[in-house]
Sequence to fold (447 residues):
Amino acid sequence: MEDFGFLINSIVHLDWKMLVMWAIGGLLIWLAVKKDFEPSLLIPMGFGAILVNLPFSGVLGNNGIVQWLFRVGIEASEAMPLLLFVGIGAMIDFGPLLSNPRMLLFGGAAQFGIFMTIVLAVLLGFPLNDAMSAGIIGAADGPTSILVSQVLKSNYKGAIAVAAYSYMALVPIIQPAAIKLVTTHKERTIRMPYNPANVSKTTRILFPIIVTVIAGLIAPDSVALVGFLMFGNLIRECGKLDSLKETAAGPLANLITIFLGITVAFQMRAEQFLSWGTLLIMALGLFAFVFDTIGGVLFAKVLNLFLPKEKKINPMVGAAGISAFPMSARVIQKMALKEDNQNHLLMHAVGANVAGQIGSVVAGGIILNLAHTMLGV
Amino acid sequence: MNPIMAVMAVLPLDFQGLMGVVKSRDVIASLWLMLKGMVGIFIVMLIIFAVVAILSKVTGKKKDEEQQDG
Fold:
């Protein structure tokens, strides 16, 4: 009988923490399948959470595929999140922003939650590197969150990735509540006529180059993030690389997405993931999303103090300055139509939303820059 | 280190938080981070805004001229 002991060797080494992680993995898969929460990432992450929490799991260790993917794809150079940015850049049409560039300001204002969260995390007793990593959940941008928490060597990388993607999927629930908290019905019904200016091809081509140079000169650490995003966009806009554009926005982004989720799950090993800190990180992530939204809305309200009546901005557009693209823009459009069925804010919100994409990567770069000087990371 | 941080660093204002000791030095550092971070983001966005506005004007004008010539 002893000869067959190997058959139950793993089973006897199962502990309750592993079972909890299986349940968490199952919950992520359920949320993705039943509730349509970011399925492309939550399914690989949920399955990965089960995979890395099997006793003596063959995907871990020096020869384990998940550990290798993590070491090469994320730890060594953050290659996976950065390559995904090429695909994202190839998907984004900055046209609505270029025809109405003042929306760029909302892409900055709606990063406020990041910094509020850092302060709160420090007040809870998190060390600065973990606090900065928790704050970056507010970038509402999965790859940026993964990259910053990795560079800052946070102890909560898994929780941060899960929070970033989960709350992005929850934008339709979080944002309306936060917006209603700080706006009146009258403000939500402000109409904004849409008169887009013509955007020349030269502007479209020069935009990604200029953004990269400006961001790179002011926050050199943002070059990888901004540069790869804008490289993807240059491929899209140059008009000469249609085949590469299709590949970057399609197969490349899909391939990276498949493996990014399962690779991030390496950080979801029970001994690392199950802690009070993880619960607090999840709560901080929610706080970050709420204050991003509030930051964008309040900034629009401040601008309105100085704008003539016919040029007033619907403050809800400010909330679209978070990077969760395109969910946030859709949420704003839906809310605007609910308040006034003739008020179409979609294109303004899309402009603010793509500005948020730029704002979030710039915020990530600035945090890394400041971490260099403050923490020597 | 800036003067405010230097003063705070020597003040005995540390207290116990949920996740560990909260150092007054870290709290001040996080507030500075908020200030520098938001100012930094706005500077980048404002510069991009200005450049895009100029670019749109220049390339728009060129397009108008081309249309008039045609």
Q: What stands out?
A: The radius of gyration of chain B is 24 Å. The longest strand of chain B covers residues 15-17. The interface with chain A takes residues 16-22, 26-27, 29-31, 33-34, 36-38, 40-49, 51-53, 55-56, 59-60, 62-63 of chain B (CB under 8 Å).
